Amino acid sequence: MILLAASISSIPIEPNPWMLIPFILMLLSIALMPFIHAHWWEHNYPKVAVALGLFVVGYYVAILGQASRILEIAHEYVSFIALIGSLFVVAGGIHIRVRGEATPARNVLFLAIGAIGANFIGTTGASMLMIRPWIRMNKYRITAFHIVFFIFIVSNVGGALTPIGDPPLFLGYLRGVPFFWTTIHLWAPWLFVTGSLLGIFYLLDRANFRRAPEVVRELETAHEEFRLDGKRNFAFIAVILVAVFLPTPWREVIMIAAALGSWWATPKPVHEMNQFNFHPINEVAWLFFGIFGTMVPALDYLQVHSDTLGVQTPIQFYAFTGLLSAVLDNAPTYLTFLAAAMGQQDLNLNSAAEVAGFASSHTALLVAISLGAVFFGAASYIGNGPNFMVKAIAERSQVNTPSFFGYILRYSLPILVPVLAVAGWLFLR
């Protein structure tokens, strides 16, 4: 999840098309290097991310003279790290022991609760709070699809009902979209997609549960008393959520202060029970430094040439916003297509009144852009901030997770994309 006050420049910047190469190299490195040379990548990915990111920064500052554009992206990155980092630390101080049985039905209920909760504490907050108990309650038979569906439902799709839920919707709220607009207009596709994914998960999990040896089933379904340690950290989560609505730099300062307060106030045994360490947020911080830096030419090139893409109808906006949200940060992608859609109506994204008017008079277009950004953020590990963090926490817990391409080829394309295509056909025709 990214909280930022990003703006689309009134005068689009057209970079040299060759400057798209660093972004492509960044994506390919994330996807392929763990296979080509895992040991080297593990020790050198920060250097690769920084080198590629600074190469683009240098081009924008020295060649294009666009230091202001880089400062805008730097602000977005700092806000991103402040939010997900603070939620990561605070959630790491909460230990939840789930009472009940990790049967398929209980797993579905757990994911459904996560999807609803994401609308109140954000997809990052819900992901960081619930991924560890999710792994523990399924530890005797957990497989890759348990992690993938958690990312699908809790880390992305679930947060479509409120501006707090996912960064693109929050940006729309800051620009002038009424707070309850998302709830009123997105509840039906949210219910369809969330329900469809929960239904598919149930079928897969039931087959997995039936294949498990009897002794594993007994261990998995053993009753445990519900226990919650680190309850004081919910107060720190509340502080972070309030800070969401504050202007910069107070927003970031308060978030960081909340994380520090949580770290010092949480008893050491709670962190030990969670096997808490800073490796996941460290990996996300370095990799997204490279992603944020190298994606600038891609976003600017897209904004300049948005009119030539032939994107006119709601289903086209849904598809294009979704496609690019899967491989770019979904918050600026949302703003880019919102600016393009409003520009076609001779409206200005920087006017709150005109944004509110657009939301009222061109509801289908805004629904399409909103759904494309939120839903398709689940299509890859880099589509949304929590995705990588969930993957990193799962790997540190020695849970098998799919590779970058494995995630896309085995789960996104055959499962997620068809569900989202049907949702587009049903709600955006």
Give a nutshell description of this structure.
This protein has 429 residues and is an all-alpha fold. It has helices at 21-36, 38-63, 67-91, 104-137, 144-153, 167-175, 181-211, 214-220, 233-243, 250-265, 268-273, 279-304, 314-325, 330-344, 352-361, 363-375, 385-396, 404-428; strands spanning 95-97, 227-229. A two-stranded antiparallel sheet has the order 1-2.
Walkthrough of the structure:
The chain has 429 residues and is mostly helical. It has one domain. The chain has 18 helices and two strands. It has helices spanning 21-36, 38-63, 67-91, 104-137, 144-153, 167-175, 181-211, 214-220, 233-243, 250-265, 268-273, 279-304, 314-325, 330-344, 352-361, 363-375, 385-396, 404-428, and strands at residues 95-97, 227-229. α3 (67-91) runs parallel beside α10, α3 packs antiparallel against α12 (279-304) and α12 (279-304) runs antiparallel to α17. The longest helix has 34 residues, at 104-137. The two termini are 29 Å apart. Mean pLDDT is 89; it is low at 1-10.
Number of domains: 1
The strand line-up of the biggest sheet is: 1-2
Stretches with pLDDT under 50, minimum 5 residues: 1-10
If you compute it from the alpha carbons, what radius of gyration comes out, rounded to the nearest whole angstrom? 21 Å
Helix content: over 70%
Task: Specify the overall morphology.
Answer: globular
Share of residues in strands: under 5%
**What gap, in angstroms, lies between the N and C termini?**
29 Å
Strand count: 2
N-to-C order of helices and strands = HHHEHHHHHEHHHHHHHHHH
In round numbers, the mean pLDDT is 89
Instruction: Please work out how many helical segments DSSP would assign.
Output: 18
* Structural class designation: mainly alpha
Assembly form of the protein: single chain
Main beta sheet: 2 strands, antiparallel
